[in-house]
Amino acid sequence: MSSYYESRNTELDAYINFDLTFPPHLHSQLELILLLEGSSTAVVDSQVVSLRPGDVLAVFPYQIHEYRFTGANRSITVILNHDYVRHAVQLMEQCRPKYPRLRDCKEQESLVRVFHWLQEEKGRPQPRELVLQGLTGVLLGLLLDSLPLQKIY
Length: 153
What we know:
alpha+beta
């Protein structure tokens, strides 16, 4: 199956997703998924990843990825462009996750809490920009501290 380039015009998206499914695609943003309920299967650069509640999936910019429907599920999706991850752009250009999933992050309460706060703040009638920037910085710091990376060149 071929993939396509998804052009996104927003700096930050954070929303609840039901029954996550999406064909193979890539984009220039960092994409993070926290599975809240059910199960899901993702494919990231040909690597099949099973997700269960509490798992976080990290898809770095320009990685081909897809989500396959495996049954009812609910997740929080966070998508960040370069403006929100500028302090980590060079790292993400040089490295990729060894494995894109963090298993059972319910134990990492801070990480899960920041996903929820981002989604709630983004859903406000007038999201507070400084709060969004601070939360994305915390989310990225917690994620990159926990995710084993490998150099790609």
